[in-house]
Amino acid sequence: MVRCVPGCSKCCWDTEMVLLEEDVERIERLGYPPSSFSYVDREGYLRLKNVDGHCVFLDPSTGRCRVYEHRPLGCRLYPVVYVEGGGVAVDPECPARHTVTDEELEEAARILPEIVERIEEERERRLSHRS
Predict the structure, then answer these.
(1) Each residue's pLDDT tens digit, 16-56
(2) CA 85/CA 97 separation, integer angstroms
């Protein structure tokens, strides 16, 4: 997985990161209550919270993530992203985009459809519990 450019944090601002339940469980084990960093949106997706326009875990004074070693899977895969209807791509806005190897892109292309499927399954479970 791509290592972040120290202090960059560009992707941590106005994030719309979708989380897996396993992401929440991993971060919760660090002592963070899930409600302090995640929420379920109107469509039933589990998402990372923003505070003052940035990810709740970003330290804006240093540009570093407070949970970097335990960050969500989507953050670990970034700048490789899944574009609905377009498949896997490298975000052209990321300053580290040039560091993504062909092997990393191929690996992401292999696992991202499964991750998207898991996200949708978890979403459906949450929606069915609302009814």
Answers:
(1) 999 999 999 999 999 999 999 999 999 999 999 999 999 99
(2) 21
